[in-house]
What does this fold into?
Amino acid sequence: MTDFSPALPQALELLDYFGIAVFAVSGALLAAEKRQTLVTFIFFAVATGVGGGTLRDLLIGAPVFWVHSNAMLLICIAAALAIWLTSRRWIAARALLWFDAAGIAAYATYGAAKALGYGVAPVPAFGMGVLTACAGGIIRDVLAGQPSILMRPELYVTAAALAAGLFVVLWVAGIALPVAAAVAAIAGFTLRGLAIARGWSLPAYRG
Amino acid sequence: MTDFSPALPQALELLDYFGIAVFAVSGALLAAEKRQTLVTFIFFAVATGVGGGTLRDLLIGAPVFWVHSNAMLLICIAAALAIWLTSRRWIAARALLWFDAAGIAAYATYGAAKALGYGVAPVPAFGMGVLTACAGGIIRDVLAGQPSILMRPELYVTAAALAAGLFVVLWVAGIALPVAAAVAAIAGFTLRGLAIARGWSLPAYRG
Amino acid sequence: MTDFSPALPQALELLDYFGIAVFAVSGALLAAEKRQTLVTFIFFAVATGVGGGTLRDLLIGAPVFWVHSNAMLLICIAAALAIWLTSRRWIAARALLWFDAAGIAAYATYGAAKALGYGVAPVPAFGMGVLTACAGGIIRDVLAGQPSILMRPELYVTAAALAAGLFVVLWVAGIALPVAAAVAAIAGFTLRGLAIARGWSLPAYRG
It folds into this structure.
């Protein structure tokens, strides 16, 4: 699916599929909440599932990852159908929060790694990790006309920033890629998990 | 205007200009409804007229179709001026709905054809058709801060999906391009026309 | 930072940094007004600071200007931190309006010049100037869920259009680049300044 296979272990690529599916589900769930049609379910699932990675690929000059394969969009369409066919009472919102936490951590790490693999400078590579993890959700919220995840004080973007930033620092420090990826993703997931479990949030500006 | 001229009949290229003009008018009309200035009219006309095709070209890696010619933007600016100089009472909203239906059908077919011509896989090529037809209107609605066409149950995105999907299926089946394009565009236009004439819409999720 | 250095005087490149900083501050100020967290400050500063130029580079097929250097994002992050650490009472809103006016004029001129340097046709090059100056602010407003600068009758987009349009006309007329750039930027700044000082605005559509 990606173009820097020699630089990235196969396991990380699996995380790519996992991230797409989790984010597609979160897009379809918002469509369900807003009582939309099946077509809107699919549109939201696709925009949320591939939005962040698409923006990353456009910015780093990589071929957009879902354009030359059918698999990515089919995953999103399947996620939308699954949610459409399911009663909302059956969907454990809390379980999804945890899958989403894993998706953020995996995607932020993967996005930063792909950017570095394309020769992007460290600070923008860190930005690409954050964008990969968060832009899908931002696009979803803008399309639905609701306050963006950006505007919530939860440690959401922050968890993505921790994973992406840690990966870039470890990579610059010369740590082996699988180790750097594992440490970064686990740190991001842990921070997001603590935010979910304990309701942690960032302080707001008081000026 | 496009880069795959050998693969696409000239007639379809004319549809490109037609689609831009129709969508530019719909952008300017929203600016009129919101009592905006002439500069906003032009901005909305351009964003709506070329937005969908721009996103498609970025995603498939094609040069953005309006960047190397003056014609496309001048069409949008002319459309904005025409609406600005016209009293709204003179504009037949119902007539515009039908032109817009033709624009959707033409653009969805054209977008899918251009994507296939660039070697895009069938499922994403279908997505490109839908995006070409609908993204301009979505961008227009987001800029104006109003609920997106995505969120309405009308058969709008669905008609684009029918045209794009049918074209891709016929193309994969080896049908001659002009035939496939005509069948797909007519089917999409018919579905959208029935939705306009009879008020058809999709069922919403009840969960 | 840019890829057409032979065509553009060094001074104009400094204006690039200046424009990024001014727009980044305006993004962070909106985050302050909305009582957001530091992470949101940074996100808004980056999106507003580099958003317009990013869209321009994607559209004209140039490498995105901030991806291969650390400086641009660090400027945005520094701007966000500076606003975060400052009491709002200390920020002279009126002073910022004037810096922003200079940013618009500089960026519109620079954006049109960069587009022409990439072989873009005159009308779209004019559009690229407007987009470079205004798209960052539009993205900022959409992310924050507030009415876009597009929808305000102030001479904001218009000032960018004057600078970009004048530059393209002078360039097509064969005027030396530094002269064309200076005349265009000063004209755009003057128009925006008059709008600020005298409350000038464009007439709205009455239809």
Remarks:
- Confidence is low (pLDDT under 50) at residues 1-7 of chain A.
- Chain A has seven helices and no strands.
